[in-house]
């Protein structure tokens, strides 16, 4: 007797009909072949695949071990080191003077408000994310009085922190933009290359850092962007360039803007450190606002990992400034089609924390105070390291770039061999290109780092 399934409505739903058909098919097949099957080996019709694991080997036995991520691998190596003097300067996260992770007081207050709100539920967000978060994020980076916002020319979607925002932007450009080439600075954050390449774009470079001066290679930057094809995409770090800590001046930003607009190059800003670099949210957003003020189109990926300490919440936003509100509306509709099969919709908790802080004047003001305190501590670490290197007798080189650079990271100028020496002899961990996280330093550990640098540049010159 065949099992019976209730059908909804007069004729049942499409899913019910498909299920009933499948059951009938299985029933007919089993009844017609059951007599012959009973006298045979039940496994006789099953052909073994060469990759089947019945012989004890994994079907994935041929998978090779992937190398550690060059940045995250630093922490893996650090954790394995039993030395009591070890120092991790590779991690891209803020640390207190005691070397501990920091949860901002304002974040704890916002979370408590959310917990105490009994009306909150855990329903799905829309594909585009939390509406208040999107609106407030656009205002934070573009300015509340931005004409682009007032004219509804901005399409903003909540994404999975900065990386997710970049990836959604890359996928959108790969599908809808006529140019598939993106120019990124040399050097840049290592994940940029993978994010844009896997998003369907062809990655090329423009000169950015000058090892000779340990500053901006401005002439090379202008020459390379001048040679880029019309309409190409250009990745720009909004502030606190990672890994170098070298930013253009506002005057140089204006020259970059004029050049890019004259060649119809499309700006794609990565804003991971707004307010975290200088301590000023408005100051750090000035380069982005210059490009928006001229009426042109641009992309901006935002992250709240650093400036609110919400690393593990993975909360960020992608904003696309368009020419008209109609274009912005259509762009948003296509962003939904990118997001839906990727992760469907973003998580609610981190975005709710951000929105709670940004829309409450008292909490917002408290956030700016805590944010400036973090930025000031990093600036202090720069000065202390510079002073320690300068006052050490015989330490070769000009280390003024340490205090000229800005943000979480410093490009020390140390080479691969010197980095390896410092790791082996002093248990100091950093990326092989000599980038260090200033947030990982403290007044207590600055002398240890200065001793290591001194030894490295004198012995490994």
From TrEMBL:
Q: Which GO terms describe its molecular function?
A: L-aspartate:2-oxoglutarate aminotransferase activity; pyridoxal phosphate binding
The record ties this protein, via NCBIfam families, to:
PRK09257.1
Question: Transferase among the record's keywords?
Answer: yes
What Enzyme Commission number(s) appear in the record? 2.6.1.1
Write out the entry's keywords from A to Z.
Aminotransferase, Pyridoxal phosphate, Transferase
* Complex formation: Homodimer.
Biological process terms from the Gene Ontology for this record are: amino acid metabolic process
Enzyme type, top EC level: transferase
Q: Which organism is it from?
A: Macleaya cordata
- Protein name per Swiss-Prot or TrEMBL: Aspartate aminotransferase
Gene Ontology CC: one annotated term: mitochondrion
Q: Does the keyword Transferase apply?
A: yes
What are the Polar residues biased-composition ranges?
A: 37-48
Q: Where is this region: Disordered?
A: 25-48
Any extra remark in the record? In eukaryotes there are cytoplasmic, mitochondrial and chloroplastic isozymes.
Cofactor(s) needed by this chain: pyridoxal 5'-phosphate
Which one Pfam family would you cite for this protein? Aminotran_1_2
Which intervals hold domain Aminotransferase class I/classII large? 85-453
The record, for PANTHER family, names: ASPARTATE AMINOTRANSFERASE, ASPARTATE AMINOTRANSFERASE, MITOCHONDRIAL
- InterPro entries attached to this UniProt entry: Aminotransferase_I/II_large, Asp_trans, NHTrfase_class1_PyrdxlP-BS, PyrdxlP-dep_Trfase, PyrdxlP-dep_Trfase_major, PyrdxlP-dep_Trfase_small
Q: Which reaction does it catalyse?
A: L-aspartate + 2-oxoglutarate = oxaloacetate + L-glutamate
Family classification: Belongs to the class-I pyridoxal-phosphate-dependent aminotransferase family.
């Amino acid at each position: 007797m065949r099992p019976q399934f209730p059908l909804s409505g007069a004729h049942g739903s499409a899913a019910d009909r498909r299920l009933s058909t499948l059951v009938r098919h299985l029933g007919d097949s089993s009844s017609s072949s059951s007599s012959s099957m009973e006298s045979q080996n039940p496994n006789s019709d099953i052909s073994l695949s060469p990759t089947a694991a019945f012989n004890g080997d994994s079907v994935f036995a041929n998978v090779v071990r992937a190398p550690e991520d060059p940045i995250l691998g630093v922490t893996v190596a650090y954790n394995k080191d039993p030395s009591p003097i070890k120092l991790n300067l590779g991690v891209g996260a803020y640390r207190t003077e005691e070397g501990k992770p920091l949860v901002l007081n304002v974040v704890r207050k916002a979370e408590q408000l959310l917990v105490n709100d009994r009306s909150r539920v855990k329903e799905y967000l829309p594909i585009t994310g939390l509406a208040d978060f999107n609106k407030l994020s656009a205002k934070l980076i573009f300015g509340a009085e931005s004409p682009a916002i007032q004219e509804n020319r901005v399409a903003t979607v909540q994404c999975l922190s900065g990386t997710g925002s970049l990836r959604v932007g890359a996928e959108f450009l790969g599908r809808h933009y006529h140019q598939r080439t993106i120019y990124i600075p040399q050097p840049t954050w290592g994940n940029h290359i993978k994010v844009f390449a896997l998003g369907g774009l062809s990655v090329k470079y423009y000169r950015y850092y000058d090892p000779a001066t340990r500053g901006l290679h401005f002439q090379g930057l202008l020459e390379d962007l001048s040679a880029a094809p019309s309409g190409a995409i250009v990745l720009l770090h909004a502030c606190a360039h990672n890994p170098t800590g070298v930013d253009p001046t506002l005057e140089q930003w204006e020259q970059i803007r004029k050049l890019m607009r004259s060649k119809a190059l499309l700006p794609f800003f990565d804003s991971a450190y707004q307010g975290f670099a200088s301590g000023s949210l408005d100051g750090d957003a000035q380069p982005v606002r210059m490009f928006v003020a001229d009426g042109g189109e641009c992309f901006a990926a935002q992250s709240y990992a650093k400036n609110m300490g919400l690393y593990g919440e993975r909360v960020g936003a992608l904003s696309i400034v368009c020419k008209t509100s109609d274009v912005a509306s259509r762009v948003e509709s296509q962003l939904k089609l990118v997001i839906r099969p990727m992760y469907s919709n973003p998580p609610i908790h981190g975005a709710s924390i951000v929105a709670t802080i940004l829309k409450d004047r008292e909490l917002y003001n408290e956030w700016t105070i805590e944010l400036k305190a973090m930025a000031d501590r990093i600036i202090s670490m720069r000065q202390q390291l510079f002073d320690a290197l300068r006052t050490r007798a015989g330490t070769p080189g000009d280390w003024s770039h340490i205090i000229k650079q800005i943000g979480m990271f410093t490009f020390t100028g140390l080479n691969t061999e010197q980095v390896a020496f410092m790791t082996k002899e002093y248990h100091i961990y950093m990326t092989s290109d000599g980038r260090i996280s200033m947030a990982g330093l403290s007044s207590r550990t600055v002398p240890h780092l200065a001793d290591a640098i001194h030894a490295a540049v004198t012995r490994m010159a």
